[in-house]
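Duplicate of #3305? Posting structure anyway:
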């Protein structure tokens, strides 16, 4: 039962919740369950601890990860930055001359804070200049001939970080030298990374277990910069690490909120910030093409009908975008008529019915030209959960299928096709850390349990050139107003705050 609860992102459950849920599931009375819990605590499979005065239970590995991550944060906060004192009065004009960009007042303050701190968090939504800020800080630090390490949780996010900084960025797994044989990492506290500054991008996607491993491998003397958008969906795995580090109040944090001029002309960016503040997005007016549309539809069937038309005809003809390569449907759920599974079957039929030869495995039919997503990390093939590619060929006699991911071809044997699924439509959760030229989002009241602000905000911020929401106006209003009431149950913020107090921070 605790494992189930951690599947929803919680690191722990209150003793009462666990008893109630377990007695429902197992149909066993509370006294027997209490006894079982006490036995598990004695066996050290569970750890009991209070959170905000409520007795809670942790699975031991998650408890260990939280304690470990908090210990690492407290350790890394100690001491001076490895670059020593930097005169920002001189450094900022120098970096502006190098980049040709003028930093805003808030960005200058952020550079000051980052250069004077050994550990810093930089957060903010789209169009607020996170990339410019990170690049400016990196230029100043690299001028000191220091060793800088960049990483991100997914291959796609690492690639984007490489493109925006011009420096090599790795996935966290690759940086820590993941070993598929032992399922562990070669880099750790005993064998730390060789780096003066570690930068983690898209950090909202990193769960507590991975963050604990990464922080543990950073040497004492090194500095750490954590970059991400705290308002996006939290990680798929347990924890709310970025939010907890900020909430601890112990780690210097820069929250950028000012939208830059060039970004303010984008309705996508303006509306993403409106949604984040709980305001309804602005509608497209007039006949000029916009980059953000809301198309009202009364019923799920109507949404479905418009969606097929928008993806297959309207976007390609009005915006010149390719319906398979450039357009991504992002839906709140996997099941149901507007879920990823059913939409994939329909879109495959509409966009690639003639693809041959076809092969059916694990309940899905694949053909050349189909868009697919990798659904598990495969370290041998170097493709990771969330990577999207296109099938370039199928050899029925050899029993192999080729998929091209960002210009690289990966071969799958037919027996490995349970690792990929169709990706004309994917869940919003799967889109974290990715960007697409055009995004189409169906929203219906039948999704009401999932309609929440950070979900719709994450979906909208995935679109680069065009975002189209097709839905019931009531469903959009509900998503914008609903701030996730059930925050993830974690104790990381408290641990960091308490540990930093003890260390006289």
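Output from current build:
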């Amino acid at each position: 039962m605790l494992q189930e609860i951690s599947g929803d992102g919680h690191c722990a459950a209150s003793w009462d919740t666990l008893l109630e849920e377990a007695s429902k599931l197992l149909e066993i009375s509370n006294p027997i369950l209490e006894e079982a819990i006490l036995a598990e605590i004695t066996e050290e499979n569970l750890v009991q601890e209070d959170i905000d005065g409520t007795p809670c239970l942790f699975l031991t590995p998650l408890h260990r990860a939280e304690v470990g991550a908090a210990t690492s944060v407290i350790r890394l906060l100690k001491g001076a930055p490895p670059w020593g004192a930097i005169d920002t009065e001189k450094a900022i004009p120098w970096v502006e001359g190098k980049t040709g960009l003028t930093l805003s007042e808030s960005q200058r303050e952020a550079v000051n804070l980052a250069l004077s701190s050994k550990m810093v968090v930089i957060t903010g939504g789209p169009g607020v200049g996170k990339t410019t800020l990170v690049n400016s800080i990196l230029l100043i630090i690299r001028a000191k001939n220091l060793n800088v390490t960049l990483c991100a949780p997914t291959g796609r996010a690492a690639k984007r970080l490489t493109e925006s900084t011009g420096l090599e960025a790795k996935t966290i797994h690759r940086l820590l030298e993941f070993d598929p044989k032992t399922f562990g990492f070669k880099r750790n506290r005993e064998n730390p990374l060789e780096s003066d500054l570690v930068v983690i991008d898209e950090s909202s996607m990193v769960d507590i277990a991975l963050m604990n491993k990464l922080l543990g491998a950073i040497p004492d003397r090194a500095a750490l910069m954590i970059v991400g958008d705290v308002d996006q969906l939290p990680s798929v795995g347990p924890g709310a690490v970025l939010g907890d580090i900020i909430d601890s109040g112990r780690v210097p944090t820069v929250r950028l909120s000012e939208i830059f001029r060039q970004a303010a002309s984008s309705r996508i960016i303006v509306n993403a910030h409106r949604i984040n503040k709980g305001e309804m997005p602005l509608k497209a007016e007039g006949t000029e093409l916009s980059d953000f549309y809301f198309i009202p539809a009364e019923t799920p069937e109507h949404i479905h009908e418009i969606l097929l038309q928008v993806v297959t005809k309207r976007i390609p003809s009005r915006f010149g975008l390719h319906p398979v390569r450039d357009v991504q449907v992002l839906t709140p759920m996997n099941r149901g008529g507007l879920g990823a599974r059913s939409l994939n079957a329909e879109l495959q039929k509409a966009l690639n019915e003639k693809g041959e030869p076809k092969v059916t495995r694990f309940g899905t039919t694949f053909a050349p030209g189909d868009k697919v997503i990798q659904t598990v990390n495969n370290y041998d093939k170097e493709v990771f959960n969330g990577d999207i590619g296109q099938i370039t060929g199928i050899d029925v006699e050899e029993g192999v299928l080729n998929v091209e991911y960002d210009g690289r071809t990966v071969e799958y044997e037919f027996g490995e096709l349970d690792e990929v699924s169709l990706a004309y439509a994917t869940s919003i959760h799967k889109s974290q850390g990715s960007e697409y030229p055009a995004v189409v989002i169906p929203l219906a009241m039948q999704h009401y349990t999932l309609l929440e602000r950070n979900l719709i905000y994450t979906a909208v911020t995935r679109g680069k050139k065009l975002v189209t929401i097709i839905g019931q106006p009531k469903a959009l209003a509900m998503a914008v107003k609903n701030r996730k009431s059930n925050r993830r149950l974690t104790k990381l913020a408290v641990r960091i705050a308490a540990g930093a107090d003890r260390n006289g921070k």
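Confirmed duplicate; merging threads. The longest strand covers residues 463-471. The two ends are 38 Å apart (CA to CA).
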